[in-house]
Sequence to fold (409 residues):
Amino acid sequence: MSKVRSTRRLLVLATAVLLVLASLPAVGTHEVGHEAETLRLHLGTDGTFFRYSAGGVPVTQTIGAPTRCEITVDGPLAAIDASDRGPGLVGVSLGTKSGGSQGIPCSRVDPSEDLTISLIGVPDAVTAAFDLELKGDAKIDIVLSLGTTTVGTFQVRAGSAILAGEGVDGSMTAPFTATATAADPIANCRNASDSGPDSGANDNCYLTVDPGASFDTVEFRPLGGEVSLEGSGDFANDPNFDTIFTLADFDGELGCDETNNSVSIEEGTVFGEITRLQNTDGSECVLKPFNLDVDTTLDTLSFVPQDNPGEPQPAAYQAILMFSPETAANPFESNLQYDQDDEGPLGFTDVPWCAGDPFTDTDASGSINTSVIPTGDTWCIVEATTSIVSATETRTTWTVVGIGDPKFR
Fold:
């Protein structure tokens, strides 16, 4: 590790001369090797499962048989939660565990309930197509979120809940389809005269939602009527009618050797270089997908690594970061903040200084000594170098180490 440390510290000193920014590599110098595609929810007579496809061998998360209609679904690809006594599954329909002692109806969500799907071990979604069974005069809110931030609220209507002049009409014959977007968030699904249960594909609406932004959680909140979430069961198990999340592509994958362990990005006045180190438990290093993004408006850099499903990796990282020049009254006074859990603007806190040198007294794994990261934090500052940009501006280069997926500013 001493070689890694000395190499990185030489770079820190070099970056004090800001002219070297022109020669620093940008994202694209790291070969992209992992492009995520879809996450499917299939609920059919031939199986109940989530399936993640990313160009390689698909990964399947089986949904076990219900006990008195109750199910437990909690990763590694996705989780299902619901109000009352949690999610329920009857036949090919997901709902909430409610009603009497037998859990009836169990496969439906009514206006006093909600049902939530959360993506866990896959990239964020960019669009989704839901196989919905609508019952009665349905008016269903569909709320998409990223972390704790609401991305958008969309609505699908059926029966007398459809009002003239409101919403965009879907197809008029089975299979009934409709689309909701950020520009047109209300979709009318005219599912014939029968919107009651047990009418095969005639009471289903295959609804596509395109929010124009990434999301990782979807919540179904009926305002009227009822809804069941399905996945092709009323379409003879045709996978084209699965509930399908289309996922954002990863920017690449990081390994642990010098050929694939580093990626950098530069946009505007924000620069970051991320280097993956050895796993903290000494386990064999498996390529780890990631996204690396800069928001020049908010002056933030976001690094989000993901485990390949079924292959958890206790990875450690080193980062070199620079943001916009500072104009503090004290020209050498600046601070680095991060949002550990993507909680939004209120989630930012100061990155603490490491309690020691993470590159000395490393554990048997050969990784950094993570004990120097203060309790309650996931990253810490190793070194900071401040240089003068002008008579009124300075710029700081930060060297940090950590084990999480933060957003820095």
